[in-house]
Design goal:
263 residues; 23% strand; globular; binds adenosine-5'-triphosphate; binds magnesium ion
């Protein structure tokens, strides 16, 4: 039993697509300032979990509490308005818009706020976008180019810069560096460490256990549509996590309080 109030507390989260049990009875907990990793094989239910907690899809059952308050987001925009920024595995960016328009989509900066008569402040959005992108180290020649002509890695950096720039409650990254080169991966990891220093809670899905052990406090293991246990990093190791992911290690064999699924 942990005493402080969790930022995010989830109980019994379930999503079935017809006969496919993508996620069943998932329990999860994230404490203030905590960075958590979600690991598991392909198809284990990780992205489904993210889509359910950020309003992309609605669960069949279960409860989600944010700062102790039950929430149910009708859409990803709804979640963003509550300070939850997400970079989805399948990127949700507008191909026909340029970088600043993507970064400020839905929260455009204006000279004066006059509702529909507002005048967009393009200069401010360009400057702030350039500053956000600089944190990822990605090189984009022309910010006014649409995303259509950009590489997967460049697009990923735009999405990560946007999320890191706006998150104030929680940031969720679904395999953020899977499409990135060595240098960009290192920069993204620095951004994540910066969020840790700012005490912004984070959930990262990653297959890269080196990255996981480098970045997070706690590791949650998904297996065949269930969250089977969580392990504090300092009490675990990559071999143990691989054993849990593959089923070679039974989570019941771990000390109960260390593998806790409850808050
Ligand atoms: N919209 C959908 N309709 C039907 N089945 C789905 C849908 N979305 C996901 N699934 C199924 O749910 C299961 C979990 O998928 P999910 O994308 O959550 O896995 P994942 O752990 O993120 O995998 P990966 O590591 O490959 O990204 C899979 O069997 C998948 O085929
Ligand atoms: Mg996934």
């Amino acid at each position: 039993m942990r005493t402080t109030q969790p930022v995010l507390a989830i109980e019994g989260l379930t999503k079935h697509y017809g006969g496919v049990k993508a996620l069943t009875d998932a329990g999860f907990c994230l404490m203030p300032g905590e960075h958590a990793a979600i690991v598991g094989d392909n198809g284990a239910g990780k992205s489904t979990f993210v889509r359910l907690i950020t309003g992309v899809e609605q669960p069949n059952s279960g409860t989600i509490r944010l700062d102790g308050r039950p929430v149910q987001f009708a859409s990803p925009l709804d979640a963003r308005e509550q300070g939850i920024e997400t970079v989805y595995q399948t990127l949700a960016l507008a191909e026909d818009l340029d970088v600043p328009a993507n970064i400020f989509l839905g929260r455009e900066l204006t000279h004066f706020n006059l509702g529909p008569l507002s005048v967009l402040n393009h200069k401010a959005m360009r400057e702030r976008s350039a500053a956000m992108l600089a944190t990822t180290g990605v090189k984009i020649q022309d910010m006014s180019e649409t995303l259509r002509g950009m590489s997967g890695g460049q697009r990923q950096c735009v999405a990560i810069a946007r999320a890191a720039g706006f998150a104030n409650k929680l940031i969720i990254l679904d395999e953020p560096t899977a499409a990135l080169g060595v240098q960009e991966t290192a920069r993204v990891e620095e951004i994540i460490k910066g969020l840790k220093q700012r005490a912004i809670p984070l959930i990262i899905i990653s297959h890269n256990l080196r990255q996981v052990f480098d970045l997070v406090d706690r590791i949650w293991v998904f297996r065949q549509g269930r969250i089977i246990c969580s392990r504090p990093k300092h009490l675990s190791n990559p071999e143990e996590i691989v054993g849990l992911i593959t089923g070679a290690i039974d989570p019941a064999s771990l000390p109960a309080e260390e593998a806790s699924l409850a808050c």
